[in-house]
Every structure is written in structure tokens, then in C-alpha cells.
Amino acid sequence: MKFFLDTADTDKIRDLYSTGLVDGVTTNPSLIAKSGKDFFETLREISSFVDGPISAEVTSTSLDGMIKEGEKLSKIGKNIVIKLPLTEDGLKASNFFYTKKISTNVTLCFSPAQALIAAKSHATYISPFVGRLDDIGENGMDLIKKIKTIYDNYPELQTKILVASIRNLDHVIESAIIGADVVTIPPNVLEMLYDHPLTKKGLEAFLNDWKSTNQSIL
């Protein structure tokens, strides 16, 4: 399973990308706004050191607008993935970019039916928002299970499941158990993956025992 970093904070991306854990990046208008930086400058900076897919979202809601914006965004770099809303025009744009061999990420998916038609529209990635479903009392991971089953039933559907709106470690682990292709993770959740109190406690004990020997490896 691949890990994408869900942020527009270029300093944080550089730091975590150096760990070798990060396979790509997803951004959206909200994340760009939070960063306070220029949209295109941010994407260019990220693409200068991240080799994997970088999702850049269009802001137009019309087909013509999405195509124009998507074509402009795609010129930033070969690894730019055009992020499109799951609307009728968004799906048409997905099919258009497929014919142009430009990767797409169809976002704001909340149902298996939406995931199915996105795959039929040749989306490279589908982004189901599990956290937002949890927020309204539904189980977001049930959606991932259903999408995985549908896609497995039809091998000709090549769309990859990119689990989005990740809120906690359970979302990540359950996504891996189900067999999702990608999870896009906020930096704080990615850092939680290797943080465990017993690891810290064990390391402290080992170091104290080693110190008592009065030895040095160097």
C-alpha cells in the first residue's frame, strides 16, 4: 500500500519525504489556503523534489473550465494528477484526460455507485472520504470494503482506491487489511504510525542497561 501525504506544507513534506515513507502528495484548495502560499508556486516546489504522484485540484465546476485548468496544471510536471469533483462534468473531464493520457483523481466520493461510475470514466484514482462519513454516523471503512469488492469483481476497472479524509491510525490499518491501493495521510497521523509508548519505554530501558556497562560502540 502506498502512502500519500495530505498537506500543502512544503517544509513538512520535505521532512517526511526524506524518511522514504512518502510515495506521493495530495493537495486541495483548503490545504493551499491554509498554507498561505501561491497555488502554482506551491505545486512547483513540491514537484521539484517529490517524484511520485501529486494531486492538484481544479476549482472550476464546468467541463470546459475543468479541462482548461487541468491542462494548465498538467504542465507543471509529468507527475501532476488532476483532481476532479465527482460530478457529471467531473466524470466527463476524467474521461477526457484519460484520452490525453493525463492521470486523474476523482474526489469527494461517498458511495459505491459513485466509485463505480468514476472507474467507468477511467479515473486513475478514486478518493472515498471515510472521515466525513464517520462524522455523520456512518462507517467510512464499510465504503472501502464495498468499493474493493466491486473493483475486484471487474478486473477491467483499473481505478485505484485512494482512501482520503483519514483521521486516525485505525483508518490506515483497516485500509491496509481491506487492500486499498493508497491512503493519503495528514502528517500527524503518519508520524503516529511509528510512535508507540512501549517502544519508547523499551528503548529507554536498553539505553540505561547499556550505560551501566560503561562501554562504548564508537
List the helices and strands and how they pair.
Blueprint: E1 2-6, H1 10-17, E2 24-26, H2 29-35, H3 39-49, E3 54-57, H4 63-74, E4 80-85, H5 88-99, E5 104-109, H6 112-120, E6 125-128, H7 130-135, H8 140-153, E7 160-163, H9 169-178, E8 182-185, H10 187-192, H11 197-212
Parallel strand pairs: 1-2, 1-8, 2-3, 3-4, 4-5, 5-6, 6-7, 7-8
Helix pairs in contact: 4-5, 6-8, 8-9
Tags for this entry?
single chain; 218 residues; alpha/beta; 8-stranded parallel β-barrel; 11 helices; 8 strands
What is the spatial order of strands in the main beta sheet?
A: 1-2-3-4-5-6-7-8
Radius of gyration (CA) equals: 20 Å
| Oligomeric status | single chain
The main sheet comes to: 8 strands, parallel, barrel
Strand content: 15-25%
Written account of the structure:
- The protein is of the alpha/beta class and 218 residues long.
- It is built from 11 helices and 8 strands.
- An 8-stranded parallel barrel has the order 1-2-3-4-5-6-7-8, surrounded by 5 helices.
- α6 (112-120) runs parallel beside α8 (140-153) and α8 runs parallel beside α9 (169-178).
- The mean pLDDT is 96.
